[in-house]
């Protein structure tokens, strides 16, 4: 129990971080752990510093995978997802507008 307490204090750094920063760390950790392993690996290369950075990285990763799937299978056309590409309101009330995606990952990282 003592080791777990010390590891948690090292990770959360309660003496150096604000309550909001600690909450962000815990939320980010739980969010990343809920993602598929392939996406977790891809996010490891981006090193997001905030929840907004994390969400942006997930959106870019998803867009990259969709793009690569379209390139590999040109006959399969999907309609675009409506949440990030049209600027609609998300479940938490934030309006996200995304006009373009950068491709931060190398193509070899996404191959099985």
UniProtKB/TrEMBL annotation:
It comes from the Eukaryota. Residues 4-61 form the SCAN box domain. Residues 66-93 are annotated as: Disordered. InterPro entries: SCAN_dom, SCAN_sf. Residues 82-93 have a biased composition (Polar residues). It holds the Pfam family SCAN. This is SCAN box domain-containing protein.
């Amino acid at each position: 129990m003592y080791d777990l307490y010390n590891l948690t204090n090292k990770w959360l750094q309660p003496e150096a971080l604000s309550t909001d920063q600690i909450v962000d760390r815990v939320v980010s950790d739980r969010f990343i752990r809920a993602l598929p392993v392939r996406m977790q690996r891809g996010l490891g290369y981006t090193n997001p510093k905030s929840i907004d950075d994390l969400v942006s990285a997930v959106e870019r990763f998803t867009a990259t995978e969709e793009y690569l799937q379209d390139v590999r299978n040109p006959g399969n056309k999907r309609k675009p997802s409506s949440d990030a590409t049209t600027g609609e309101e998300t479940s938490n009330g934030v309006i996200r507008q995304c006009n373009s995606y950068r491709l931060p990952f190398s193509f070899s990282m996404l191959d099985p």
